[in-house]
Amino acid sequence: MAIDYDKLTNWKFDEIEQTYTYKDSILYALGVGVSMDPLDMDQLRFTYEEDLLALPTMSVVLAYPGFFLKQPEFGVDWVKVLHGEQGIKIHKTLPAEGTVIGTTKITEIIDKGEGKGALMYSTREIHDKASGDLLATLSSTTFCRGDGGFGGPKIEAPKPHTLPERDPDSVVELATLDQAALIYRLSGDFNPLHADPRVATAAGFKAPILHGLCTLGVAGHALLKQACGYDPSKLKAFNLRFTSPVYPGETIVTEMWHDGNVTSFRCKVKERDLVVLNNGYAEIG
């Protein structure tokens, strides 16, 4: 069964309403490794309820519509789907607790050709229910590896952000916990690939892997620390490409290039010298 282009691009998603509390904000921060040093007062601002701040990257887990591509009427080979890219545009500082409304839309599907897969682009807007304010716009690229040649547009995909060719201006190393995926999944992604060793082995991994969006959260922490002085209001936009999975317990090294209000970045796993996030772009205000 081939992708149903018209059905997907015209699909009217239900609005998702989610109420989250200070406990959810703390749990998310702990899941991405904040407060590995519990005496670090800058990090404690995100993991202790007194004058609590929310991490800007937490918007990726709010008002999520679920794994809708599994619905048979869309014609997607969902088993072969990968998260390719993620972007966050931050319009207003995320409150530490509240109720939000999420609206999702498929904006385009590019047919890369038979045997080459397809690229699906979607956006999700997060609004504060009480005020109506737009808090964040999330953009996502999904690589549908088994769906090329469905007859859709063969337009050129947008080019990723190019990193500077000079040595990084700064580097931040952040360790992850061995149980990081088991904590992070409590923020809403219960895919057993990140918890059950049997499922991970069947998928070709030596152990459960870290959620890609958890690795994104670690990168966001590195930027918040190095480029924003732990002030979440300074992070205005954040885009990256996923290139390889991380195993819980590994150390993520974020290399950064600072050019005015733009910070380019990529992340490597220290233990394997492997790039896991690439073509990173952040706007700092």
Can you put this structure into words, describing what you see?
By secondary structure, the chain is an alpha+beta fold. The chain has helices at residues 5-9, 22-31, 41-44, 180-184, 197-202, 212-226; strands spanning 16-20, 81-90, 98-111, 118-128, 134-144, 170-175, 235-242, 251-259, 262-269, 274-284. A 10-stranded antiparallel beta sheet has the order 1-3-4-5-2-7-10-9-8-6. A hairpin with a 4-residue loop joins β9 (262-269) and β10 (274-284). The model has no long low-confidence stretch (mean pLDDT 96).
> DSSP helix count?
6
Spans of at least 5 consecutive residues with low confidence: none
Order of helices and strands: HEHHEEEEEHHHEEEE
Q: Taking Cα atoms only, what radius of gyration do you get, to the nearest Å? A: 19 Å
Give the total of beta strands.
Answer: 10
Structural class: alpha+beta
* Rounded average pLDDT: 96
Termini separation comes to 46 Å
**Which strand order spans the largest sheet, edge to edge or round the barrel?**
1-3-4-5-2-7-10-9-8-6
- Strand percentage: 25-35%
